[in-house]
Each structure stands twice: as structure tokens, then as C-alpha cells.
Write a structure and sequence with these properties.
Length: 305
């Protein structure tokens, strides 16, 4: 059984439509795939329509932006109820803040490069969200269908189109990294609160790439213990951004805290080198996730219920 529990579509910063990601997963020989766009469930319906009758099974998920002691963290949420309003409100607030932040970063970049906000914004159409600091799903805010989470990858793509950098990775290393002059932070929720909210929505929270040392500071054991106390279900240990010594540390922590261990690709289409199925999750772990989540799997495969 080939199970990959972390992928992105163009609903966030992947380059392919949800239907295309599903087709690639099936063609790539996966049995089960999770769609986990950043801060959005807008891909759930088109992905579900695409797997019906295909033999592929879909796990509907999301990757929530959060922070733990000032460190940006990503929390995967599997099989939650997307009509649960407090979580929908949170997504609206994050997306609103992401939008303001993207705009501020473009303003800084525009002092040095011929970049225009309208063209960046057009890369994330229908990206709703409420202004930062205001809760609630207002006009254009998150309801249960999503809206696109705008991020640095959309700015990167515009910089590539302008010929400023050759590709996304160069945009990140040269211009968009957190210590650079163009970087602006966005509002996000405390990780332990995010874990509680995902559980309250009937979802299964898994800490994404917790040992990704290449990006910035990572969360220490104490932070993971706090998240576990709040109801964390698992750690994404097998991910290309977790180096070997981090995997050993995370495996030991998962054992000690009784957490599930997952492995996934974090596929972004052409937006990143990550290939579908490059890391996998075992069947017993998927069974535990399905057991704990309230939203059913979709598709005609062995895992459909
Ligand atoms: P943001 O959430 O807007 O701060 O942007 C971070 C997102 O950019 C992450 O979700 C990654 O998927 C993506 N990303 C980070 N580094 C790179 C890179 N070097 N090349 C392409 N995408 C990247
Ligand atoms: Fe991403
Ligand atoms: Fe992530
Ligand atoms: Zn991801």
C-alpha cells in the first residue's frame, strides 16, 4: 500500500489543479493520497470529484500556518469538519493576514524591482480572508469552501516572470528569506491552540516537517511536548527536509509521547523538487488517522468507507 499524506495544489502554492494532482498520484502508483493545501480546503471538492471511480483514495486535509515560541510551524489537519466555524474563522483571519503581508512585501520589493501588486494578486485569485486582527468570516472570508492562501511562492513566481530570478528556489534564497530586507511576517495562531482547534473540528493534527533545519529555527522538545499535551496526534518524521539526526530525535520523541509517525512527499508540482511518493506512511498509521477523524475518505480504493 503506497500512502502519501502531504501534497499541494494551485489552491495554495502547488502548480497543478487539485484534479491534476490526483491524476499524478494515480499515475505515480499511489493507493492513498492526502491533499493538504496551506490554510485552505478549496481543493477538497475538485479532488474528490477527480478520485471517484479511479481506484485512488483521497484523504481530505489541510496544512495550517501556526507558530510556536516565535518559530513558524506547519500543522497538518486530516479529516476535520470544514463547516466547524471557529476553524473556518481562523483560516479567514490567516488568509487576510497573508494577503496584507504579501502586499507589504511587494511594496518593499517594488522599491528595487519592477514588481506590481495586481500581478502578484492575480496569481492567487479568489483569495478571501478578513483583515488581520479581525476575527469572523466576513465578506470574502473563509466559509467551508476555502479561498486561496497567497504566499511567498506567488511573489517568487512573479519575480521569475519578470526575469529577476531564474526560478522559485533562487527567489527564496536571494530575496524572500526571513532574514532578508523584503521579508514581512504574517499573523498566525499559537501551535497548541491550533492543535486544540483541529481536534475540536474533529480533525487529526500532525506536526509537518518538525525537523526542517534548512528553513529557519526549529521547535525544541518542550514545544512538541506542549503540542502533544494539547492533543497532537503525530509527527511527520519522514520528510526530505528532516535530516537524519532530526529523524532519530523525532522517532524517539514520538515513541516517548505516544505519537503517530508519518512520512510524506510535500509535493508542490513544478514548484518544488519533491516527488510524489518519495516518503510514505504505513497502513496502521493511516488506520489510526481514519479512526480519529470525522470526515470520511473518498474514492474507490481499498481504503474507501
Ligand atoms: P509563506 O508561507 O508565504 O511564508 O511561504 C512559505 C512556503 O514557500 C512554504 O509553504 C513552501 O512550500 C514554499 N517554499 C519555501 N521555500 C521554498 C523554495 N526554496 N522553493 C520553493 N518553494 C519554497
Ligand atoms: Fe508550500
Ligand atoms: Fe509546510
Ligand atoms: Zn506542505
Amino acid at each position: 500500500m503506497r500512502i502519501d499524506l502531504h501534497t499541494h495544489s494551485d489552491v495554495s502554492d502547488g502548480t497543478e489543479t487539485p484534479a491534476r494532482v490526483m491524476a499524478a498520484a494515480r499515475d505515480g502508483g499511489l493507493d492513498v493520497v492526502a491533499l493538504t493545501d496551506h490554510d485552505s480546503t478549496a481543493g477538497w471538492d475538485p479532488a474528490a470529484a477527480a478520485v471517484e471511480g479511479s481506484g485512488l483514495t483521497l484523504v481530505r486535509g489541510m496544512e495550517l500556518s501556526a507558530r510556536c515560541a516565535g518559530v513558524t510551524v506547519h500543522l497538518l489537519s486530516y479529516l476535520h469538519d470544514r463547516t466547524y466555524q471557529p476553524l473556518a474563522d481562523l483560516l479567514g483571519r490567516i488568509k487576510g493576514s497573508r494577503r496584507e503581508r504579501a502586499r507589504a512585501m511587494v511594496e518593499r520589493l517594488a522599491k528595487d524591482y519592477p514588481i506590481e501588486w495586481e500581478r502578484v494578486e492575480a496569481r492567487a485569485p479568489a483569495g478571501g480572508g478578513t483583515p488581520a486582527g479581525q476575527g469572523g468570516a466576513g465578506e470574502g472570508g473563509e466559509r467551508d469552501r476555502g479561498g486561496i492562501a497567497i504566499g511567498r511562492p506567488h511573489i517568487a513566481d512573479e519575480l521569475v516572470a519578470l526575469g529577476v530570478v531564474p526560478d522559485r528556489s533562487a527567489a527564496f534564497t536571494r530575496l524572500l528569506h526571513p532574514r532578508g530586507p523584503y521579508y514581512v511576517r504574517y499573523w498566525s495562531v499559537e501551535a497548541a491552540d491550533a492543535v486544540e482547534l483541529v481536534r475540536a473540528a474533529g480533525g487529526v493534527p500532525v506536526f509537518a516537517h518538525p525537523g526542517a533545519t534548512g528553513r529557519q529555527r526549529i521547535v525544541g522538545d518542550d514545544g512538541i511536548v506542549q503540542m502533544a499535551d494539547a492533543g497532537l496526534a503525530g509527527l511527520e518524521v519522514y520528510h526530505r527536509d528532516n535530516p537524519p539526526e532530526q529523524r532519530r530525535r523525532l522517532e524517539a520523541l514520538a515513541q516517548r509521547l505516544g505519537l503517530l509517525v508519518t512520512g510524506s512527499s510535500d509535493y508542490h508540482g513544478a514548484g518544488k523538487p519533491n516527488r510524489l511518493g518519495e516518503n510514505l506512511t504505513d497502513e496502521a498509521t493511516l488506520a489510526a488517522i481514519v479512526e480519529q477523524g470525522v470526515t470520511p475518505l473518498v474514492g474507490g480504493g481499498a481504503w474507501a468507507r
